[in-house]
Amino acid sequence: MSAPLQTAPSSTAPAAPLLPRTVDAGARRPRRPRGWVWVAPALLVLGVFVYLPLLQNLQYSVMKWDIYAGGSSFVGLANYEKLAGDPVFWRALLNNTAYAAVSLVCQVFGALLLAALVEGLRSERWRRALRAVYFVPSAISLTVAGLLFYFVYEPELGILNALLRGVGLDGLTQAWLGQEGTAIWAVITMSQWQGFGYSTLLFAIAIQRIPQDLYDAASLDGVGPIRRFLQVTVPLTREMTGLMIIVTLSGAFQVFNEVMVMTSGGPNNSSQVLVSWLYRMGFGRNDFGYAAAIATVIFVLTLGVALLQLAITRKRRVEW
Amino acid sequence: MVTRTSVLGVVARTFVASFLLALAVVVIYPLLWMVLNGFKTNSELFGNPFALPLQFTWENYAKAWNRGVSSYLMTSILVTVTATIATVFISAWAAYGLTRMQIPFSRTVLALILGGLMLAPAVALIPLVRMFQALGLYNTFWALLILYVAFRIPFTTFLIRAYMVDLPVEIDEAAAVDGAGKARAFWSIVLPMCKPILVSSVILNILFTWNEYLFAMVFTSGGDLQTLPIGLTNLMSKHGTEYPVVFAGMTIAAVPVILLFFLTQKYFVRGLADGVGK
Question: Which residues cross the membrane (chain B) (predicted)?
C-alpha cells in the first residue's frame, strides 16, 4: 500500500519558500555588472531598512540609553542578565510557548483534519462555500477580530457569558479578559478562531493536488475513510504540514496585535508576550537597550525556526 | 468515492456535516453580531445580546464615519495603494534581474533578498524608530510606505520570481532579435505574461497593508495620520461608552477586505498556493 504512495511526491509540490533555487535561466550569458540595475532597488531598500536595523539591534542590546541626556554607553551583557532575572520576560516566553502549542494543535493538525473532512464532501458547491466561510476571519484584521472578541468576552454585553447562562452554566460565567488565570487563554482562543481558516484553505489546496486514483485504489482495497486519511492524505500533505508547522511556530513568537487590542498584556502582566513586553520596555519606559535584548531573543527564536525549515528541506531534497 | 452505503456511513456523514455547519456558525455568528450591533442603541446593546436591532438606522455608521473613520479609511487606502504598487513593481523588477540576468554574486543577492522572509519585523523595531526620527520621517506617511515596501519585498519577489523562472527565456530572446532592449522586454513582454501572479501579489499585499498593526501603531501614534487598525483602537478609547459606534467602525473596516476576498477568490487562493507550495 505504501509503495505506490512514495513514488508520487512530484504531485505534492515541494514546499520551499525559503530555499533559493540555484538554477536560473540565462546562465549562458556572460556576467554583466549591468544586471545590478535590476536588483539594486530591492537590495538597497532591504539593506537600509531591514538588515541594517537588524544589526543595530544587536549593538543596542549591549548599550544603555540615557534618554534625557541623549547619550548611550556600553554595558556588556547587563541587559541580558536583567532579562534572565525578569519574571515578566519568562511569563511572556511561556505565553508565547502556550500560543505555539495551541496553534500547532488547532491550526496545523486540526486544520489538516478539517480540510480532509471538507474535501471529502460530495458537493463541490459546499466544499467551496465552507472553505470561503472559514477563511473570512483571516481576511479581516486582527485588530477588528480582537476588538470583536473583546466584546464577545465582555461580562455584561458579551455573547459568551450570555450563551453560558442560556444553557444553564451560570457558574462558568466570568470576566474572561479581566482575570490573570484566563486572559491569555481567551486571547489564544480568539487567535484560533481568526487563523484556522487560513491553514485549512492551504491544506485543502494540498489535498486537491493528491491524485484521485490513490483514494479510489484505497477504496477498492476496502480501506475505510479513517485509514485513507492516515495512509493517503497525511503522508501526501507532509510538505504542507512541515511548512505550516514552521509558519505557525514563527508567528507564535511574533504575536502582538491581538494582545495589545484585547488586554495590553494585563491584568498584572499575565497576558504579556515577547513583542508586547518589548514595546512596553522600549516605548513605555524608553529602555531601548533592554527592549533590544528582548528583540534579540525573538530574532534567535524565529531564525532558529527558519533554519530548521531550511535544514529539513535540504535533507529531504537529498533523500530524493 | 465510497461505494458502500452502510448505516454507519450515513450516520458518520451526518455527524461530519453537522460538525462542519456548526463550525461555520461559530465563524459567522460573531461577525453577524458585530454588524447588527452597529445598528443598535446603547441600551439595546446592554439588553439581550442575541436580540435583533429594533430599527435599522445608519446613525451609528454616520457617527463613526464623522468621528475619524472617514480619515482613517482615506489614510488606509492611500498607504495600501502606494505601498502595494511600489512593492510589486520593485519586486517584479528584481525578479526579472534574478531570472534573466547573470549578476556577479547572484546567489548571494538571491539569498539576501529571500532571506528577508525569515526576519521578524519586531526585531528591527527599536533601531528603525531611531533611524526614522533621525531622518525626520517619524510620524509621516513616508515611514509607513517605506517600511511596508521594505518588509514585503522578500515575499513578493519570491512569488513573482518563482513564476518568471517557469517562463521560457526564448520569449526574451525573440524580443532581443526584434531590437527591443532588456527594459522594453520587461515592460511589454514579460510583465504582461506574469499577470496572474502579479494580481495575486497585489491582493496579498493589499490584505497585509490594510491590516498591519505594529508599524502603524509605533510610527504614526502621535500624528493625525492613522490607518484603520490604529484608528479603531482610538475610537474605542475616545468614545468608549458608545459601543455601537465602535461596532459600526469595525464593520466599515472589515467590509472592504471581505469583499475583496470574495470577488478575487481565484487569484487569492492561487497566490496563497504558489506562495507556500510552489
Answer: 12-36, 72-96, 108-129, 141-164, 185-208, 243-263
Q: What is the pLDDT of residue A318?
A: 53
- Give tens-digit pLDDT for A224-262: 888 889 988 999 988 888 888 988 999 999 999 999 999
The Cα of A196 is separated from the nearest Cα of chain B by a number of Å equal to 10
- What is each CA distance from B253 to A143, A150, B72, in whole angstroms? 10, 16, 9
* Cα–Cα nearest to A189, from A91, A97, A103: A103
In this prediction, the answer to ipTM > 0.95 reads no
Inter-chain contact A50–B20, Cβ cutoff 8 Å?
no
Contact indicator for B94, A39 with CB cutoff of 8 Å: yes
Is residue B32 very low, low, confident or very high in pLDDT (cuts 50, 70, 90)? very high
Total domain count, chain A: 1
Nearest CA-CA distance, residue B221 and chain A, Å: 11
The reply to whether residue B214 touches residue A275, judged by beta carbons under 8 angstroms, is yes
Between A69 and A60, whose confidence is greater? A60
How many C-beta neighbours within 10 Å does residue A125 have? 8
- Domain containing residue A175: CATH number: 1.10.3720.10
B151 grid coordinates? 518588509
In a domain, A215, yes or no: yes
Strand partners, A64: A73
A207 touches chain B (CB under 8 A): no
**B54 assigned to some structural domain:** no
Tell me, yes or no, whether A14 lies in a domain: no
A contacts of B261 (beta carbons < 8 Å) = 132, 135-136, 139
Asked whether residue B226 is assigned to any structural domain, the reply reads yes
Evaluate whether residue B12 is within a structural domain. no
Residue B237 in domain = yes
The shortest CB-CB distance from A13 to any of B169, B229, B278 is to: B278
CB contact under 8 A, B232 and A148: no
CATH of residue B92's domain is 1.10.3720.10
